[in-house]
Amino acid sequence: MALELSEEAITLLEWILQKARLVKVHVILVTSLPSSRSLSSGILSNTDYRIAFRVTSKADSIRAIGRAGANELATPGEMIVRNGSDIVRCKAAYMADDDLRRLCMEAAERYEDEVGDYFPIWDTASNHAAKKNGNTIDGALIDEAARIVVENRIGSTSALQRKLKVGYAMASRIMDELEARGVVGPPNGSKPREVIVDAL
After folding, report:
1. What distance in Å separates the CA atoms of residue 194 and residue 198, rounded to the nearest whole number?
2. Where are the alpha helices (DSSP H) in 3-115?
3. Please, are residues 118 and 151 in contact by the beta-carbon 8 Å criterion?
4. Residue 99 phi/psi, 5° resolution?
5. How many CA atoms lie within 13 A of 85 on its CB side?
6. With contact defined as beta carbons under 8 Å apart, do 54 and 73 qualify?
């Protein structure tokens, strides 16, 4: 949820929450700053169930869950849950970014046929470096990608990620460049692209 919502957006969001509550549809809102600009009175009155992780001030805690306490949370995963008038302090399982990254990479490799090229993977250091240096892609990297695609006969972006150790965004750009060079065909939904050339 945006931190700075326009009055029109707030009004629309309040209307959606009111209607959803009437027909028992669950709506999940997330904000990193529980201020009056992101949590209006109309929004709060239509969200009985709230979860607050650590916030920076007592005022933010009161705004989010109706009482102080969220500003005193210390460890990762610790939270305060409000369900109507009931307030419970608890701790959820916490997973560090590196562990989550590794889990996603393993899942992408294991279930490649099911998820195709749409499995979200964080950018690696090499992808960050490429972004920092501009939008150009090293020609040697593209040549290596072409060799991998042709030898393995699979035009999969997620496969390029693993083989080249780059992020999804970089692998996707390389695959587009291979399409422009006539190595692979256009995107094919969730399936790998067709490999057009037989040899390099």
Report:
1. 11
2. 7-22, 41-45, 58-65, 97-110, 112-115
3. no
4. -65, -40
5. 0
6. yes
Amino acid at 190: S
User: Which residue in 182, 175, 196 sits closest to 118, CA to CA?
Assistant: 175
Structure token digits, residue 200: 């390099």
pTM confidence score: 0.47
* H/E stretch holding 49: strand 49-52
What pLDDT does 135 receive? 52
Paired tokens of 171: 């692998």
Own/partner pairs, 34-38, CB within 8 angstroms, 24+ separation:
34/60, 34/61, 34/63, 34/64, 35/3, 35/60, 35/63, 36/63, 37/3, 37/4, 37/5, 38/1, 38/2, 38/3, 38/4, 38/5
For residue 170, give the nearest of 108, 116, 115, 122 by alpha carbon.
122
Write the pLDDT tens digit of every residue in 113-172.
Answer: 555 555 544 444 444 444 444 456 778 888 999 999 999 998 888 888 888 888 777 888
